[in-house]
Design brief:
With 485 residues, this protein is of the alpha/beta class. It is built from 17 helices and 15 strands. Helix 11 packs antiparallel against helix 12. The protein binds one RNA strand of 74 nucleotides through helix 1, helix 5, helix 7, helix 10 and helix 12.
RNA sequence: GGCCUCGUGGCGGAAUGGCUACGCAGAGGACUGCAAAUCCUUGUAUGGGGGUUCGAUUCCCUCCGAGGCCUCCA
């Protein structure tokens, strides 16, 4: 079997490179997960979806049992402390509750669970071990209950973000704590007051800095070096730069991860998303409220809208784009009516598109092409359908595929449409609608148009729009329908 | 100020040293008892100026424009 060549853009080298796993029986990827202090917003969803697709692609290429995906949960952080105090609840309650919602949100977006979702608070021992190694090696020092990383001790610090060390020192403008040896040194450990969460350590009771968590968790679950490290582009500096510094200096390797991947940012309707602009929107709100565009959106629509833009490009999150994505999904659902899920296999072009630095847009284009081919009366539409199913599995439309309408199941189709429209239309009596549709089809076949039009009007009043068709093979009259907004 | 992206048709958005995908919208046609839907066909684009080249949207320079990071925000 020939494994298609996977090429990924590596921020370290600023170029696309052929991906060669350290161990192709154990391909390892780490992605920075959420800090669980509040609902995840739609920008947070981007890396989750993007790297979910990469995870699925890697599993396809290397085998399900040969890929390990780790996405952490940051459950210790000063923002968490502040938020818990604000709301008058315990830190534990806040992080547990927030994480639960995050998991639900992400599942609704069609993302697989990573193999491991480690929590920062459960890796304090590993953090302490790394800090001790760093201190022994002269890359870190303790001062006034803090542990700091000595940035000047690392000759090629700044390689990922391409910031020369000397310039950074010259340009530092943050007020410098007196215990820092160099302006650039960053915190690995800091002391906690009695009312702050803290753990015992050789340097007293304290809590970890942000960056050390990821070094500890990736080490524990993936080893000293691994294949892919992902996250948002804003994490390049300082977070990922500092992770690299910690892990490389602690373990003495030239690299921490071989490939560093970063997704671009998201804007909302052409503007930066921010609470002050009032365009801040969470995944939960998109899924369950009418805050964005006056309606709620199915997870699969959000997912497709996200994948229509290459992950490194900035993406503009608009109502129009969501509507377009929904239209596409409806079209796919129609074309795949009655399609079988067994023996589904993605087309070669599709895998080639994804293998080119995760070009999800080109991959979606390939699905469109298969859709067109499946419409053609000549040829083998069922093969094209099967390939479409295979493609959709890889980009994570499992739930969508599970709910494909049967060729002749009246109510399942109506039910699906209703779930898309949301609660307001849910008052429709499915059984009655099904009976009416059947009766109307009979009347129409008998050319009793007065009766059939009357029923059609009744159904429209209920919000059900009929669409007549003729079976291309048998010439038999048929009817499909959708729920109108 | 430093570093880094990006400017492709009405909109979204890929790719490429030679013919610029795909989707949406638009237009035309077919089908249909009518409506809706569906099917077929189709117009329209590489920000400005230089350079390299037989040839540039693609490579280089420059100008204009948009955005990001440098502030524990994906």
């Amino acid at each position: 079997m020939t494994t298609p060549q996977l090429r990924l853009y590596n921020t370290l080298t600023r170029s696309k490179e052929v991906f060669v796993p350290i161990d192709e029986k154990n391909v390892r990827m780490y992605v920075c997960g959420p800090t669980v202090y509040d609902f995840a917003h739609i920008g947070n969803a981007r890396p989750v979806i993007v790297f979910d697709v990469l995870y699925r692609l890697l599993r396809h290429l290397y085998g399900k049992d040969h890929v390990k995906y780790v996405r952490n949960i940051t459950d210790v952080d000063d923002k968490i402390n502040a938020r818990a105090a604000e709301r008058g609840i315990s830190i534990r309650d806040l992080t547990e509750g927030t994480n639960r919602i995050f998991q639900e949100d992400v599942k609704a977006l069609g993302c697989l669970e990573p193999d491991v979702q480690p929590r920062a608070t459960e890796h304090i021992a590993e953090m302490i071990a790394i800090m001790q190694k760093l201190i022994e090696a002269g890359h870190a020092y303790a001062a006034e209950g803090h542990v700091l990383f000595a940035v000047p001790s690392m000759a090629d610090y700044g390689r990922l973000s391409r910031r020369p060390l000397d310039e950074m020192i010259a340009g530092a403008r943050v007020e410098v704590a007196p215990y820092k040896r160099s302006d650039m040194d960053f915190v690995l450990w800091k002391p906690s007051r009695d009312n702050e969460p803290g753990w015992d350590s050789p340097w007293g009771r304290g809590r970890p800095g942000w960056h050390i968590e990821c070094s500890a968790m990736s080490w524990k679950h993936l080893g000293e070096t691994f294949d892919i490290h992902g996250g948002g582009i804003d994490l390049v500096f300082p977070h990922h730069e500092n992770e690299i510094a910690q892990s490389r200096c602690a373990f003495g390797h030239d690299v921490m991860a071989n490939v560093w991947m970063h997704n671009g940012f998201l804007q909302v309707e052409g503007e930066k998303m921010s609470k002050s602009l009032g365009n801040f929107v969470t995944i939960n709100e998109l899924l369950h409220t009418d805050k964005f565009g006056g309606r709620s959106w199915p997870g699969e629509v959000l997912r497709l809208a996200m994948l229509k833009t290459h992950y490194r490009q900035p993406i503009d999150w608009t109502v129009k784009a969501l509507e377009e994505a929904e239209k596409t999904i409806k079209e796919w659902r129609r074309l795949l009516r009655g399609a079988s899920r067994s023996n589904a296999k993605p087309s070669e072009n599709f895998i080639a598109a994804l293998s080119d630095d995760l070009n999800t847009h080109a991959a979606v284009t390939e699905i469109h092409k298969l859709a067109v081919a499946s419409k053609s009366p000549s040829g083998e539409p069922y093969d094209r359908q099967t390939e479409m199913v295979g493609c959709l599995e890889i980009i994570g439309f499992d739930e969508f595929l599970k709910e494909l309408p049967d060729q002749d199941d009246v109510t399942s189709d109506i039910r699906k449409s209703i779930s898309e429209v949301g609660a307001p239309k849910a008052g429709i009596d499915l059984k009655k609608a099904g009976q009416l549709i059947t009766a109307r089809l009979e009347a129409r076949k008998a050319k009793n148009f007065a009766e059939s039009d009357r029923i059609r009007d009744d159904l429209l009043a209920m919000g059900i729009q009929l669409k007549d068709a003729k079976d291309p093979v048998t010439g038999e009259l048929t009817t499909t329908w959708e729920v109108k907004r």
